[in-house]
């Protein structure tokens, strides 16, 4: 079983819809959780960063972490065609930068105009 | 933007040849990382560095070596490239928080 599971999609939704992207993980030692957006042939861009359980909101994006269920989510409100990209979840164990990130395989999101 | 550049951006090489990829950062961050991205596998950590001359292995380090002689540069070397090392390579550094990682634009490597 891979440590981080993420549905590859594609997920296609109409413009203006609320998008829900999810990851599950198996290792309860993960404490820091991130969401990245990656456009085709570009580097991953950090969208959201959260520590432990709870919600974090930034503009149209909300990240949610449920450590008891080992489940993280990213919600995108009022989705735009420019949100079309691959979304990667990532996580790491402890603070201090000494751990690399463990990534999901990414979900390909398409926002239809 | 963590001020990361990677060179070259694209490279085609032949099996058995040595290849060195360079990552350069302008923000003086302590941690630097090399990842590879492959279809069906996502991003995987190759090596990382926590300071000048301080490096450690990641998940997929076999066939790769790294060096960091200056804070701003982190080199990834394929001593003898194989076709299985055809991939997109990304460098990353931490930001103001050591738990956030920011990625460079990537190097697309093809080994024939």
Low-confidence runs of chain B:
none
Summarize the largest interface: chains and residue counts: A-B, 24 and 28 residues
Fraction of residues in H or I helices of chain B: under 10%
Sketch the topology of chain A as an H/E string, one letter per element. Answer: EEEEEEEEEEE
Main sheet record of chain B: 7 strands, mixed
> In percent, how helical is the residue content of chain A?
under 10%
Determine the strand fraction of chain A and express it as a percent band.
over 45%
Percent of sequence in beta strands of chain B:
over 45%
- What's the tally of helices of chain A? 0
Approximate shape of chain A: globular
Q: Write the H/E string of chain B, N to C.
A: EEEEEEEEEEE
Q: Overall pLDDT of chain A, averaged?
A: 93
The count of β-strands of chain A is 11
Structural category of chain B is mainly beta
In whole angstroms, how far apart are the ends of chain B?
33 Å
Distance from N terminus to C terminus of chain A (CA atoms, Å) equals 37 Å
Radius of gyration of chain B: 13 Å
Assembly state: heterodimer
Features:
heterodimer, A: about 110 residues, mainly beta, five-stranded antiparallel β-sheet, 11 strands, B: about 110 residues, four-stranded antiparallel β-sheet
Task: Please describe what this structure looks like.
Chain A is mainly β. Chain A contains no helices and 11 strands. Chain A has strands at residues 4-5, 11-14, 19-25, 32-38, 45-51, 54-58, 61-66, 71-76, 85-92, 102-103, 107-112. In chain A, strands 2, 4, 5, 9, 10 and 11 form a 6-stranded mixed β-sheet that branches. In chain A, a hairpin with a 2-residue loop joins strand 6 (54-58) and strand 7 (61-66). In chain B, the strands form 2 sheets. In chain B, strands 2, 4, 5, 6, 9, 10 and 11 form a 7-stranded mixed β-sheet that branches. In chain B, strands 1-3-8-7 form a 4-stranded antiparallel β-sheet, with no helix packed on it. In chain B, a hairpin with a 6-residue loop joins strand 9 and strand 10. Chain B is built from no helices and 11 strands. Chain B is an all-beta fold. Chain B has strands spanning 4-7, 10-13, 19-25, 32-38, 42-51, 54-57, 64-70, 73-78, 87-94, 101-103, 107-111.
């Amino acid at each position: 079983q891979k440590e981080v599971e993420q549905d590859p999609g594609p997920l296609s939704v109409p413009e203006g819809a609320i998008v829900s992207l999810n990851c599950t993980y198996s290792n309860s030692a993960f404490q820091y959780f991130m969401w990245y957006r990656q456009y085709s042939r570009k580097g991953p861009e950090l969208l959201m960063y959260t520590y432990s359980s709870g919600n974090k909101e930034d503009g149209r994006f909300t990240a949610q972490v449920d450590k008891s269920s080992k489940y993280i989510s990213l919600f995108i409100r009022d989705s735009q065609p420019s949100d079309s990209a691959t979304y990667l979840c990532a996580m790491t164990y402890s603070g201090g930068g000494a751990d690399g990130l463990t990534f999901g395989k990414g979900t390909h999101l398409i926002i239809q105009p | 933007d963590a001020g990361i550049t990677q060179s070259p951006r694209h490279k085609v090489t032949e099996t058995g040849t040595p290849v060195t990829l360079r990552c350069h950062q302008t923000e003086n961050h302590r941690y630097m990382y090399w990842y590879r991205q492959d279809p069906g596998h996502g991003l995987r950590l190759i090596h990382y560095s926590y300071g000048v001359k301080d490096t450690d292995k990641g998940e997929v380090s076999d066939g790769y070596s790294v060096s960091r002689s200056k804070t701003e540069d982190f080199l990834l070397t394929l001593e003898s490239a194989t076709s299985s090392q055809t991939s997109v390579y990304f460098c990353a550094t931490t930001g103001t928080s050591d738990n956030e990682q920011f990625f460079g634009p990537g190097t697309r490597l093809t080994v024939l």
